[in-house]
């Protein structure tokens, strides 16, 4: 009897706790992805094709192309610290451009129908979802995420002729025919950071902190190691810092790095572990500046790392962050999209913008192709459209990016980055742009 | 290695050791009464850490009430697990219960994701950022909170087992359930209470760990590592856990510092190597009861 009462009480408490936690969560709920009709039906036996529908708009009947796109994100895995806002930005962009209207070169409207999948940063899961995108939904393009999965899928997407715009800027993707991103690759970005260090201090000593088992974290390391001696920077330590680091892991990594007395630290992970490393750096009084990779540093960094990081942390960014260019072309669209999604201005950050930019690059590809090409050649038409920027007009996403040129065999749209320094005054300062001229960091990565 | 570094590492090893000991308690308490390892224990700690984080940071109810809420959640989960999972499997091979707790592990992980929502990837309790320095040694406020909380849990549980009637009754049930029942002890209720207390101690230890390491999905890995401390002490020993935890803390810190540059991430592997060695060389641990079965 007593045990039954205890059981009932226990169950009630658990339910109450979960309910209370759900109530106090208070975080914004992201709108569920607009999945095409029939997402619960079994996969068709033959690959689907983009549907062309005739819709009545106003007095005259107009053709409309429905373009199926896959959205592969990490909202629950080890990179969800930056993945959630990226996903939200991409979704906002799809909605925004559907609303605003996207037209091919010959004036046919294209409407996006996207399918979102959270693969929790598990490359095997990404492959599974890719097959679903391809075989069940017949996607023409994918807006993707991580390094390991994008690299793994690169040859397959080329074979299937599916345009792939990733949030991974791995140098190994630069030469892949169907892979694109609106940024310099990680290696070029890291080389620029090394150049900046060399300019800041003569004979600078650099310690590397990154997850030795994660493709994204490892991606620029060969280039850093190749370029550092050229730039006059000595690499004095190579320390493992898990991507899913806890505070204790970060402290151990900093303790290891301290032994080699570095002037600079390179943090090659995402913001969660990089901010923990910065926290440990302050705790142990290490006199060094930590420079983080593009996914390891954004507006939230000072708050996440805690007090005392002023003047001790910096990050790489190929673009000015949205907050600092609100009224400029390109940035305005980002804010409009956020408004459309009911997202407040203060929630618009670098990650949101990165998601938005990737969809925008897809829009640019559509605008450079004709409806006939798109219907006949699908992903290949989009690829060729982007590569038309090599000799023709460059592609620009407002003022967010400089003019970008994607050339066949080398999808490296530009090579300059800003070094965003969190100064002693508690403000972010954009230094640069910096570019590692005269050294091919992509080649150094690809060996 | 210079003396300053050795001192710094030793201090961190001791802090982590006490935290490991508190995390290991839950394994031992469950093993004593059910002769099984609760593989959901890491997720109880993780879930509790998130409950405390959401309650204190987002709901703003203050850290102490949030910790109490986490402890209640841990107790409720532990007790519910005994009633809904362990008791129906009574008399079955221990592996059945171990497998069932693995199922609960994933259920709780899903619950943690649901509770944490946008903060799933991490956060930290709002503790003062004060750093105390003495020569090469640095301690921050979170270190002090973590070690005080973890040490407190261990002391409380050990004292309860040693000096209270309830603790003696629980030990009696753990030693010989049939004999305890013959003396009129409510075995089912005491078993459920043991699971509940194991859950509560796991929850509090999870919060202590999160104070030191931050709230993140990676916390459960620490609890799994704490299993090495349990094995080292002996799965049915409560008092020996402190030594087991501290040994583990030292092995992890020093092996990672010395071997990390050659073998990245070795510190995380060290705990499991300790586990292997203990199982092969001293399967009942340093303070565990050796059982000799005649066939």
TrEMBL record, chain A:
All copies of domain Leucine-binding protein, residue ranges: 67-388
Record keyword Signal present: yes
Entry keywords, A to Z: Signal
Lyase is among the record's keywords: no
CDD domains reported for this sequence: PBP1_ABC_ligand_binding-like
Pfam families listed in its UniProt record: Peripla_BP_6
Region called Disordered, residue ranges: 29-59
Low complexity composition bias: residue spans: 36-59
Protein name, as recorded: ABC transporter substrate-binding protein
Species assigned in the record: Pyrodictium delaneyi
TrEMBL record, chain B:
Record-level GO BP terms: amino acid transport
UniProt keyword annotations, A-Z: Amino-acid transport, Cell membrane, Membrane, Transmembrane, Transmembrane helix, Transport
Its membrane topology: Multi-pass membrane protein
One Pfam family it belongs to: BPD_transp_2
Subcellular location: Cell membrane
InterPro entries linked to this entry: ABC_transp_permease, BCAA_transport_permease
Recorded GO MF terms: transmembrane transporter activity
Domain of life: Archaea
Entry GO CC: plasma membrane
TM spans (from-to): 6-27, 39-55, 61-81, 93-117, 137-159, 192-211, 223-251, 257-281
Transmembrane helix as UniProt keyword: yes
Annotated PANTHER family: ABC TRANSPORTER PERMEASE PROTEIN, BRANCHED-CHAIN AMINO ACID TRANSPORT SYSTEM PERMEASE PROTEIN LIVH
Family: Belongs to the binding-protein-dependent transport system permease family. LivHM subfamily.
Protein known as: ABC transporter substrate-binding protein permease protein
Organism: Pyrodictium delaneyi
């Amino acid at each position: 009897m007593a045990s039954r009462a205890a059981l009932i009480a226990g169950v009630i408490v658990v339910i109450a706790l979960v309910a209370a936690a759900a109530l106090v969560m208070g975080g914004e709920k992201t709108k569920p992805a607009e999945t095409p009709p029939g997402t619960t039906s079994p996969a068709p036996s033959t690959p689907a094709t983009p549907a062309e529908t005739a819709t009545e708009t106003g007095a005259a009947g107009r053709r409309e192309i429905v373009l199926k796109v896959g959205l592969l994100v990490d909202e629950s895995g080890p990179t969800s610290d930056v993945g959630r806002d990226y996903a939200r930005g991409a979704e906002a962009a799809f909605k925004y451009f559907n609303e605003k209207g996207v037209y091919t070169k010959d004036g046919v409207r294209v409407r996006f129908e996207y399918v979102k999948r959270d693969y929790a940063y598990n490359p095997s899961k990404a492959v599974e979802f890719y097959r679903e995108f391809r075989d069940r939904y017949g996607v023409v393009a994918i807006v993707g995420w991580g390094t390991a999965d994008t690299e793994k899928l690169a040859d397959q997407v080329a074979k299937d002729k599916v345009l792939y715009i990733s949030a991974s800027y791995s140098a190994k993707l630069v030469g892949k025919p169907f892979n694109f991103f609106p940024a310099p690759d990680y290696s070029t970005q890291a080389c620029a950071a090394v150049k900046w260090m060399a300019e800041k201090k003569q004979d600078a000593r650099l310690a590397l902190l990154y997850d030795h088992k994660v493709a994204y974290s490892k991606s620029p390391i060969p280039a850093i190691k190749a370029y550092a001696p050229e730039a006059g920077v000595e690499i004095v330590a190579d320390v493992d810092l898990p991507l899913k680091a806890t505070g204790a892991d970060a402290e151990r990594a900093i303790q290891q790095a301290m032994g080699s007395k570095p002037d600079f630290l390179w943090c090659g992970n995402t913001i969660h572990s990089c901010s923990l490393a910065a926290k440990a750096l302050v705790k142990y009084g290490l006199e060094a500046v930590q420079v983080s990779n593009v996914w390891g540093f954004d507006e939230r960094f000072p708050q996440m790392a805690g007090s005392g990081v002023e003047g001790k942390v910096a990050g790489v960014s190929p673009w000015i962050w949205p907050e600092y260019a609100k009224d400029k072309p390109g940035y305005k669209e980002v804010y409009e999209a956020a408004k459309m999604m009911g997202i407040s201005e203060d929630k618009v950050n670098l990650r949101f913008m990165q998601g938005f930019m990737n969809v925008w690059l897809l829009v640019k590809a559509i605008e450079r192709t004709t409806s006939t090409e798109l219907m006949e050649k699908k992903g290949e038409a989009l690829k060729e459209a982007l590569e038309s920027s090599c000799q023709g007009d460059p592609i620009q996403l407002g003022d967010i990016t400089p003019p970008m040129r994607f050339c066949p065999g080398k999808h490296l749209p530009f090579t300059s980055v800003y070094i965003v320094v969190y100064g002693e005054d508690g403000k972010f300062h954009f230094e640069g742009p910096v570019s590692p001229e005269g050294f091919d960091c992509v080649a150094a990565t690809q060996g | 290695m210079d003396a300053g570094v050795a001192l710094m590492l030793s201090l961190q090893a001791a802090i982590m050791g006490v935290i490991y000991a508190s995390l290991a308690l839950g394994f031992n308490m469950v093993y004593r009464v059910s002769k099984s390892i609760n593989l959901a224990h890491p997720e109880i700690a993780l879930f509790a850490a998130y409950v405390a984080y959401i309650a204190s940071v987002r709901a703003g109810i203050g850290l102490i009430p949030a910790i109490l809420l986490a402890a209640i959640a841990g107790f409720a989960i532990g007790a519910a697990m005994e009633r809904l999972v362990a008791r129906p499997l009574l008399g079955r091979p221990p592996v059945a219960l171990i497998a069932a707790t693995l199922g609960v592990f994933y259920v709780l992980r899903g619950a943690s994701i649901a509770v944490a929502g946008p903060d799933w990837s991490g956060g930290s309790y709002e503790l003062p950022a004060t750093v105390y320095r003495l020569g090469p040694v640095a301690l921050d406020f979170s270190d002090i909170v973590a070690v005080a909380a973890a040490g407190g849990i261990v002391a409380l549980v050990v004292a309860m087992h040693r000096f209270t009637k309830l603790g003696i009754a629980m030990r009696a049930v753990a030693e010989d359930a049939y004999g305890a029942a013959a003396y009129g002890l409510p075995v089912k209720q005491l078993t459920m209470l043991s699971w509940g207390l194991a859950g509560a101690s796991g929850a509090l230890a999870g919060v202590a760990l999160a104070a030191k390491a931050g709230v993140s999905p990676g916390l459960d890995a620490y609890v799994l590592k704490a299993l090495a401390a349990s094995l080292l002490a002996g799965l049915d020993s409560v008092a020996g856990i402190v030594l087991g935890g501290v040994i583990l803390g030292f092995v992890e810190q020093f092996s990672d510092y010395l071997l990390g540059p050659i073998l990245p991430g070795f510190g995380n592997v060290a705990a499991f190597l300790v586990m292997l060695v203990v199982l092969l060389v001293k399967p009942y641990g340093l303070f565990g009861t050796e059982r000799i079965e005649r066939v």
